[in-house]
Automatic annotation (TrEMBL):
GO terms for molecular function: ADP binding. This is Uncharacterized protein. NCBIfam families: FxSxx_TPR (NF040586). It comes from Serendipita indica (strain DSM 11827) (Root endophyte fungus). It comes from the Eukaryota. It holds the Pfam family TPR_12.
Length: 983
């Protein structure tokens, strides 16, 4: 027996087995297998059935076997058994099904290759039958399993490959339809994970189907399907649904480059260097990876580079491959080889890879390779003459090109301005540029957002009002696209963000929503770690006003950030990884190895739009921040506290209702000398305490004392003094005269007296405090040593420098002995002692001590902290005494400029530094420059007059004198008129 005879005999045997099996199935459904497939009237309105088949005479197109009549030639007779056979009979294993006789004779087989998912053929047939204006209510697609689940068959690899190709075709068609109908809400797809495979076991299939039907997502899909069928709401017309044809086996056309491609020269230069620098030394494909947030312009950058490639290699070919899913990726790769002609119709994506591996002068863009489960490396041809650029939101793909991976971020401000004005057809004049700059800043210079804004502005000619429109209708403008954008800009900004968000697990998305409530550019890892290690509880601020909701918030944060019950850096890294992968967060490492996360402003805006004002997340945000704060007078936590400031400011004070939180935030502000903002929190805290506990309550009194300190830091000494007196009297009445809190209030009142020039009262109070603390605490207690230093300061005010020097020297010695780690407290005493030594004429000793103090302050608090800068001005004063005016002027200039930057122009400390700098300039004969420097003194004259800083009052007098010397009598008279009088 020949091979052909054996195969023919096997086909006959297979045919008989298949027909017998199908007969049993048809009979079990109470149907006659020999009944005609076409119904008697041929034109039923209830249900029309069509089977896709291939005619052996013309396998290039699908032929339909219908249960109804249509125009054209009468079809050959077909039984139900024949129809079932046609739908399954593979040409590899079965004979064709022959219908009709003579001229009407056809031989049909299944159309599983190309029409395994016949939904597009079905829609075209429906348009023929019902007309293109007919509207569709429901489209249902039933699958038979997914390609990724199939197990390789060693026994029959060709059959396995055929089944796998069939499932890939069905998924590819499904993805096309799903994308086309995603907003119509009429398309439903039910597809079991484990379906038909190489070995068909009915019991296993039934088990997989039952498991699939038991899933929540499946149940929801079926509910939606039933609702759609019952309601039958008219959807898109058949004309609209058939506007996209079945994906042909031709090369995918690459998207067009926007006509106003702006900038990106840095990235283009880097790509040119990678791909064109030394081709002879390369032994694999040249690969680059462009990583970035959706809408950052990765695809456009790759397309721009494609033009560069074509200009250098005119005979080269550019392939654009959609890599957003395995099905699309393999389909587009397959299309490359099949586009070569009919002879390649059966070739697969592996054939494409093998073909490209043998060739050079080709360039491939793998676009939107975002799926973390899709391993790209096997899909890159092993060629040493090809070029590949991968665009992705998934940063882990950077490993494919460690030396040529580029984070494609926002446009520069200049590029964004140019893009907006060019795309909106506006002139590049100064007025328009200023408006465009404001829009670009609000949009974070994201290319897609700028393009959409430009499209809207182009249509409505609203460059001047766009920013207001955006702030009022942010959700609409982020969610919609402009009709005037290039064709390939199909997605809105919101859609690109949602694509990434949808890939996140639920708990990760919730974490990202929480982080969106922070200031987006500087989310400190240390902040999160510190709060978590404290279990999001208070560290030092305890008041009776803690309610149970704060414990609930702490527990919610523990569940989100510490699911194991304890803080774990490993677990947090795993939690945050997906956000980093999809460029929803960026990670920055500073020079001192501190970690900070940042979020694009548009990602933040979109997430915040989904967080209503009463969402519990806002309370979790406040709870996390407050639990980071430590009440520490020695600046040991100042770096962490400084990192909290922008986040505290961004948290609405209206949402902060806990006294503990308010006092904690005030502490952070006071520590960095933002007394005005601290007063806002303390005023609210005081109001809550008074309304809850009354004025004669210890919590109320404690907050009152803190508020007094904030008033004094802004020069409102009279207000501070009045509150200090109330605090002392209340504590005496409630606690007694020698209670620690009473003695503390006494010392604070002494400082208020000194600030108001009531020096003898200050000395009396300081002496009383020191006597009590020496007697009750001893000399080796921090509070006792603080009392010594305070009394010394009060004594210096009445020029008792010898006594002050003795107290400060002893305080410094004891500080170093008992509390060597209290560096900030030691430095305060060093600064004070240096000043005293200078006044006593011990200039060299003072100079050495103050130089040491300045350097130590830089190390402890940082070079731009207020204490460091005040220490600089103390050193400058001693340098003045020694006649070293140039160095003194340089130090004062540094201090003034730093304070102006960190504290603001109208802060009392800044104004004092400004006065000192001007005095140095005057000492060097630079009177005009001194007057120029003191413009802030003129601007804030009203503030200076109404504050209680004597030195600032003197500054007005100094400036008046400078105006007089320069002959500017009018300005001098104006200052004299508003002067507060003698000081």
């Amino acid at each position: 027996m020949t091979w052909e005879e054996a195969m023919g005999k096997q086909l006959v045997l297979n045919d008989q087995k298949l027909r017998n099996a199908l007969k049993e199935i048809i009979i079990s459904a109470d149907q006659n297998p020999d009944s005609l497939f076409m119904e008697r009237n041929g034109n039923t309105k209830r249900c029309k059935t069509a089977i896709c088949a291939l005619n052996e005479a013309n396998v290039s197109r699908c032929q339909l076997v219908r249960s109804y009549r249509t125009r054209g030639m009468s079809p050959p007779k077909c039984t139900i058994l024949d129809a079932a056979n046609i739908s399954i009979a593979s040409a590899r294993s079965y004979s064709p099904v022959t219908l009709g006789t003579e001229h009407n004779k056809v031989a049909l087989t299944e159309a599983l290759v190309g029409c395994a998912n016949p939904i597009k053929e079905l829609l075209r047939e429906a348009k023929v039958q019902f007309g293109e204006s007919a509207r569709v209510a429901t489209v249902l697609s039933l699958g038979s399993g997914k390609a990724d689940i199939l197990k390789t068959s060693q026994a029959n690899p060709s059959l396995f490959q055929a089944i796998r190709q069939m499932t890939l075709d069905t998924e590819r068609t499904h993805e096309d339809i799903a994308q086309q109908l995603q907003e119509a809400y009429i398309y439903f797809r039910l597809n079991v994970e484990h379906g038909l495979g190489f070995v068909i076991e009915s019991g296993a299939i039934e088990a997989h189907v039952q498991a699939y039907l038991g899933e929540n997502s499946t149940s929801q899909a079926i509910d939606g399907l039933i609702n759609s069928i019952q309601q039958r709401k008219p959807g898109p017309s058949l004309k609209e649904l058939t506007s996209v044809t079945t994906m042909p086996s031709l090369l995918k056309p690459r998207p067009s480059l926007v006509p106003y491609f702006i900038g990106r020269d840095v990235f283009l230069d880097a790509l040119i260097s990678t791909h064109f620098s030394n081709p002879l030394a390369h032994h694999s494909a040249f690969i680059s990876v462009l990583v970035g947030l959706g809408g950052s312009g990765k695809t456009q950058l790759a397309l721009r580079f494609a033009l560069e490639y074509e200009s250098r290699f005119p005979t080269g070919v550019v392939y654009f491959v959609d890599a957003r899913s395995k099905g699309r990726l393999e389909a587009d790769l397959e299309a490359i080889i099949r586009s070569r002609g009919v002879a390649y119709r059966a070739q697969t994506y592996q054939d494409t890879l093998a073909w490209l591996a043998e060739r050079d002068n080709w360039f491939m863009i793998l676009d939107n390779a975002d799926d973390p489960n899709l391993k790209l490396f096997p899909y890159i041809p092993k060629s040493n003459g090809g070029h590949v650029i991968i665009t992705t939101r998934n940063s882990t793909n950077s490993v494919l090109a460690p030396n040529s991976s580029h984070l494609v971020g926002d446009l520069s401000e200049e590029e964004a301005i140019s893009l907006i004005l060019t795309a909106a057809a506006h002139e590049q004049n100064p007025s328009n540029r200023k408006l465009a700059q404001q829009i670009a800043s609000e949009l974070g210079c994201l290319p897609l957002a700028c393009s959409h804004a430009a499209g809207y502005i182009l249509v409505h000619r609203c460059l001047g009002s766009y920013l207001d429109l955006y702030r009022q209708r942010r959700h609409y403008l982020l969610s919609n696209t402009s009709l005037d954008l290039p064709q390939d800009y199909k997605e809105s900004v919101a859609a690109t963000i949602e694509m990434s968000l949808e890939r996140l697990p639920r708990n990760v998305r919730e974490l990202l929503r929480l982080l969106s409530l922070f200031q987006p550019s500087s989310i400190s890892y240390s902040m999160i770690e510190t709060a978590a290690r404290r279990r999001f509880a208070y560290d030092a601020f305890t008041f009776q006003g803690i309610d149970s909701s704060q414990f609930e918030h702490a527990n919610a944060l523990m569940a989100l950030l510490c699911p194991s019950g304890e803080w774990s850096e490993f677990d947090f890294n795993a939690l945050i990884q997906a956000c980093l992968q999809y460029s929803l967060l960026q990670l920055t490492i500073t020079e001192d190895n501190a970690k900070f996360y940042s979020m694009h402003i548009l990602v933040q805006s979109w997430l915040q739009l989904g967080i209503p004002p009463d969402d519990p997340l806002r309370s979790l945000n406040v709870r996390l921040l407050a639990s980071c704060v430590t009440s520490d007078e020695y600046y040991r936590h100042i770096s962490l506290h400084r990192s909290l400031i922008p986040h505290i400011i961004s948290a609405s004070i209206d949402k902060i209702v806990s006294v503990c939180d308010l006092v904690a935030f005030a502490w952070v502000m006071e520590e960095s000398r933002h007394g005005d903002r601290a007063a806002l929190y303390l005023n609210k805290a005081l109001g809550i305490c008074i309304s809850t506990f009354g004025e004669a309550h210890l919590d109320t009194i404690a907050v009152m004392g803190r508020l007094a300190g904030s008033f004094e830091s802004w020069g409102h000494f009279e207000d501070g003094f009045a509150l200090r007196k109330r605090v002392l009297e209340a504590r005496k009445a409630l606690l007694g005269e020698e209670h620690a809190h009473t003695v503390l209030a006494m010392g604070n009142l002494a400082r208020s007296c000194a600030s108001l020039g009531k020096h003898q009262e200050a000395i009396n109070l300081d002496s009383q405090v020191l006597e009590i603390r020496l007697r009750t605490l001893g000399t080796d207690h921090r509070d006792t040593l603080l009392s010594m230093a305070n009394l010394a300061v009060s004594l210096k005010a009445i020029e008792q420098y010898d006594t002050a020097e003795a107290l400060e020297s002893e305080a410094l010695r004891l500080r170093r002995k008992y509390f060597p780690n209290d560096k900030a407290a030691i430095l305060v005493v060093m600064d004070n002692l240096g000043h005293t030594l200078n006044e006593l004429g011990h200039h060299d000793e003072a100079l050495a001590l103050q130089r040491e103090a300045v350097e130590l302050w830089k190390a402890v608090a940082g070079p731009q902290h207020v204490e460091t800068l005040v220490s600089m001005t103390n050193l400058a004063h001693t340098l003045d005494t020694l006649g070293q005016d140039e160095e003194a002027m340089s130090l004062r200039k540094t201090a003034f400029e730093a304070l102006r930057l960190t504290q603001g122009s109208n802060h009392p400390v800044t104004l004092l530094a400004e006065t000192n700098y001007a005095l140095s300039l005057c000492a060097l004969g630079q009177v005009e420059k001194a007057v120029e420097v003191q413009q802030d003194i003129v601007q804030f004259t009203d503030f200076i007059v109404h504050c209680s800083y004597p030195t600032l009052h003197q500054a007005l007098s100094n400036l008046e004198e400078s105006f007089t010397k320069m002959g500017r009598r009018r300005e001098a008279a104006q200052l004299r008129a508003c002067s507060p009088g003698e000081v």
